[in-house]
Amino acid sequence: MQGMLKRAAVAGAVWAAAAVSAAAADFDWKFFTIYGVADRQTEWMRGFADDVRQATGGRLNITVFTGSELPYKGVDVYRALSRRQIEIGHSPTGFIAADLGLLDAMSMPFVCMDMQRFFDGALPQIEATFDAAIDDKFGATPIMHWAMPGQQVWSTKAIATLEDFKGMKIRTWNQGQVQTLDKLGATSVSITTAEVTPSLQRGLIDGAITASVNADAWNWHEVLGNGYLFNITLSHEVIAVNDAALAELPEDMRAAFLEVAQKWEGTLRQEVLTLDSQARANLTAKGIKLVEPSAEDAAALATMTADIAEAWAAQQGDAGRSVLAAIRAGCQ
């Protein structure tokens, strides 16, 4: 559907009756997110599902499943979506890039580190390209684009300079992070989101890359004491719906569903902006030491990783070079 349904049907849509019908739903969908049962992101997805149920008078029921409830890892989400093992899927583009390299643009180190600039400047330039690529590859229409805040290193061992990375084992979740840690002399470890906290507790890893929102929500003050705020990337999050499932909905129901999705896209963007600052304050109050890279180390990081983005763009050809340039321009 080339993403055309996403915006076109939203205009002029009228919400269905507010009262939720007691009768069985006409459509039952499964929505999978990589996050955990108690995570704030999952709470948001359930809020979206509740609003859809309300907006469609109970005719469309969406059940949200998490990383511990279905046997999927991040790289499996859009494969499951394309096979219609799920109707809605949520995953960072860093995971989708295993099957669709163009979406790895936002994983390039230090290319875009400001959420508001991404939302306002970069995303409008690349959204249609990403939507078409996802639809062509997976038969799925993106309905929400948002982002998690800058991805930092949270560790049991203190990191004050780039030299401190040497010999550390750090959980990563995209290739750009792996390549960056290789340059810093650290070892990358690939494990599921649900496995990260237990691995930190048992000393199987020294740290992990994620956003402050997650570090706070997962109570990492109980298992580690350090945050190195090198802000390597944002985590570009995409939520998409299987094309066939979307096409099966009656026109009024589809319009109501897409209208709710548009509302929640804005809600998600605003929530993460607020939660990022709150999370950093909470982590500091709970005893985690937050360290900003020195100006020298920040410059060194940008210089030593520049070739990663350039090599990626060359592999993707004209489309990759165009997307990378748009992101850089939009995030300046």
TrEMBL record:
NCBIfam families reported for this sequence: TRAP_S1
Pfam families linked to this entry: DctP
Principal place of residence: periplasm
Keyword vocabulary terms for this entry: Periplasm, Signal
Subcellular location(s) per record: Periplasm
Record-linked InterPro entries: DctP_fam, TRAP_DctP_sf
Protein name, as recorded: TRAP transporter substrate-binding protein DctP
Signal peptide range in chain numbering: 1-24
Species the sequence originates in: Ruixingdingia sedimenti
Gene symbol of the encoding locus: dctP
